[in-house]
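pasting input
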Amino acid sequence: MKSSLKLALGLASAISASAAVSNAAHAEDLTLCWAAWDPANALVELSKDFTKQTGIGMKFEFVPWTNYADRFLNELNSHGKLCDLIIGDSQWIGGAAENGHYVKLNDFFDKEKISMDDFVPATVVGYSEWPKNTPNYWALPAMGDVVGWTYRKDWFSKPELQKEFKEKYGWDLGPPTTFDQLKQIAEFFQKRQIDGKTVYGASIYTERGSEGITMGAMDVLYSYGFQYENPKKPYEMEGFVNSDKAVKGLEFYKALYDCCTPPGASNSYMGEGVDAFKSGQVAMHMNFTFTWPGLQKDENVGGDKIGYFVNPKGPDGDQFAQLGGQGISVVSYSDKQEAALKYIKWFANKDVQAKWWSLGGYSCLNAVVKDPKFPASQPYAQAFLDSMAIVKDFWAEPSYAPLLQASQKRFHDYVVAGQGTAKEALDGLVKDWTQIFQDDGKI
Amino acid sequence: MLNRTAENVARATPEPLARKVRGISDKGLAWLFISPTILLLLAINIFPLFWAIYLSFTNYRANRPNEVVKNLGFANYQRILGDQDIWIAMQTTAHFVFWTILLQTLIGFTLAWLIDRKFRGHAFWTTLILVPMMLSPAVVGNFWRFLYEPQIGLFSYVISFVSGIPPTDIQMLSNVSLAPWSIIIVDTWMWTPYVMLICLAGLRSIPEYIYEAAEVDRASNWRQFWSITLPMALPFIMLAVLFRGIENFKMFDMVNLLTGGGPGSTTEVASITLKRQAFESWRTGYSSAFAIILFVAVFGLANIYVKALNKVKQR
């Protein structure tokens, strides 16, 4: 009996001791929270170098895009300690800064000599600053992203299609430079038989639940002349959000949806767009550039079969694109802020950023993207660079969520459900947004 | 034997504990046993309810914990009751509840009546009919989304085969007129077996001798159905309607999976609106007020209905 007791005590002590050693080894492990998508896998690979250099282990909490905002905003709002580092969406920055969710990084940047001038300006404004255009930094630009287009280069280069297109529209079939051209190409391909299959014009964003249709419609509206507010008088939206030009832009988006999308594409966002392109359903495909490395590698539609182009120009020659992407922040509720800052310092390093790009992440560091070799480094690199130069972003106010909900409803009601007119949709949006800013005490 | 066991238990109980237990009355002992459940109910049901009532009078937002919470009085309630979008969502919910209940009751009762004939293999058919009800709503929602798919969906091909309309033109989830019906079809497919089961229990509870007496009186099958079967099964049918009514009033999963409330706001039922306000727009006070209104509406209607049900039972 005594020997059994001794054995049990010995085992218990050994287990406790090994657990203590293991806890000590993992005490500084950092948890990084992000969306579950291709770049996240690249970051896992990249972060192995950080662990090698510092001995700090990395754990990852990746959540699918559909639940990403819900899950992590809940986590931040409840002051949870799950995430030490978070790659939060660009529109969260206002709320996260004002509610104290993120650690302000100015002092850290000064101490470590990390300069925001070393990053692409649009990404600094979009991912790091709050209030916008002020030197108050809450994140390091981590993943550059913007809405762009892919097209089926192999279909575009078929001589019989080129001939037919030229006869019909009077210009050579190629990547469009204006939205009118884009619609003509989409109409040309809609319900056409190619290689024995019926194909369609374009896949565009129409998703209702999160942010899809807003990202897609805004991507067109900006180039048509839509503005969020009077540049001289903040929060004055009448005549800017619902200007005649903006109305024309929304009418165009609906016309594109009605004429040229695949059947049933009424709730389509990033995943559905990729599926439509990969399965050979569409000639053109609107999506964030993060999808491009995966499509380039695809056996059926990648390689020589795929081409990339920047968001086309509007009727007056204006050309903008919807910004995507995120910055990396330290969560203020984390007990491991020091280690988390070490990660940010490591991530800002030029070599790490270069490797980040080579693995499929989109670096925002000037030294990487302005390298003379960069445009030729990937078939989509030039289109990405050109797109990043013309970005605009949605409101990043603390009330971005209700602002987004309002535009989702107004756009989907008009574009997909066909209710009312474009003018009514945008007038309604002005009303909704005004109410939200009034509730916030901003007007 | 039982007495001996009780004696053994009493003997085995340690003296200090036995002394304490001996001092507790039967009522005290009853409270002792039910108190954990009551505490749990208070913690997870009653307290959140009262907290939600409190929040409904404020401008509280869960995503802005640092902001000062202001008392708004009945402003949230006034805003909700004057909001046209909320009324549209309520109408959509009513439309959905009405048609699902009507179809499920008609089909469910008919199936129960047929199964009650006790034909050869009726047990097998009963089990087969019950299968949809046993599936997870998430699974049902996802596979029906594929069935409705205009390019590859089986449903579209069957309709196309019957009607001659090209399958790509049958856009169940994208078409404003068809989208509400696509949800009604799935809900009916899934939950009719449930109604059938309750109706079957009702039909099986009717004593055989009543039908024998009717046979002696030469009552026709039709007469037997209207005078015996339907009145005696009615309380069960009403019970099924009550359960399905409450469930469908708060329907969320199927709508979210199939249409997400779209196209536009065509299928945006009250629960979807509530979720958007509470967890996407983070208007916690406002959405609490909306939740209270919904709760009062369901509670009130259910109470009226239960009174009617009791009257039917007493007849």
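fyi DSSP finds 20 helices and twelve strands in chain A.
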